[in-house]
Amino acid sequence: MATANKNLSQYDKNTIPNAKNFRFGIVVSEWNESITENLCKGAIDALLENGVSEENIVKWDVPGSFELIYGSKRMIDTQNVDAVIAIGSVIQGETKHFDFVCEAVSQGIKDLNVQTDIPVVFCVLTDNTLQQAIDRSGGKHGNKGTEAGIVAIKMAYLRSVTS
Ligand SMILES: Nc1c(NC[C@H](O)[C@H](O)[C@H](O)CO)[nH]c(=O)[nH]c1=O
Ligand SMILES: CC(=O)[C@@H](O)COP(=O)(O)O
């Protein structure tokens, strides 16, 4: 199902585990900051709405989406978190750099999920245009940050009941 056929902000609150004892790291890319800060707000709001305490949310900024990999690894290694949300916005420019950044970040975050015990949520928009990014960070298609916050809670819970 494409994003255009669902709203990224909608979820059934009755299906979300209580997250009051979980601690979350959020790593945010500064590239396309107007987009990533909206994604971050969506994620934080979702966490708070489902019982997470403000003191259990650690937020760090990194220069770009490529740096989300290192930032997420350092978050895992130093902050005793139950899940990490990696937030970025990559928008196609004139060159193939978009392809390399998107591939590297998706592979790097996948690797963290395989190589560490902490789930890392891929909240990285990879859009052809700024409007597509706006539409998915609080616009007509909802907020992918909200979706990421809910995913982080569900994965932290899965980790807690399978440890
Ligand atoms: N063009 C975008 C970038 N590019 C920067 C890279 O992410 C990285 O910071 C640089 O290559 C140095 O390592 N980053 C984004 O997040 N979004 C873009 O649209
Ligand atoms: C994703 C990028 O790195 C890209 O936005 C940079 O733009 P350009 O390809 O025009 O250098």
From TrEMBL:
Residues at which (2S)-2-hydroxy-3-oxobutyl phosphate binds: E94, T95, R136
Protein species of origin: Flavobacterium beibuense
Protein's job: Catalyzes the formation of 6,7-dimethyl-8-ribityllumazine by condensation of 5-amino-6-(D-ribitylamino)uracil with 3,4-dihydroxy-2-butanone 4-phosphate. This is the penultimate step in the biosynthesis of riboflavin.
EC code: 2.5.1.78
EC class (word): transferase
Gene that encodes the chain: ribH
Pathway entry: Cofactor biosynthesis; riboflavin biosynthesis; riboflavin from 2-hydroxy-3-oxobutyl phosphate and 5-amino-6-(D-ribitylamino)uracil: step 1/2
Keywords: Riboflavin biosynthesis, Transferase
Protein family according to the UniProt entry: Belongs to the DMRL synthase family.
Protein name in the entry: 6,7-dimethyl-8-ribityllumazine synthase
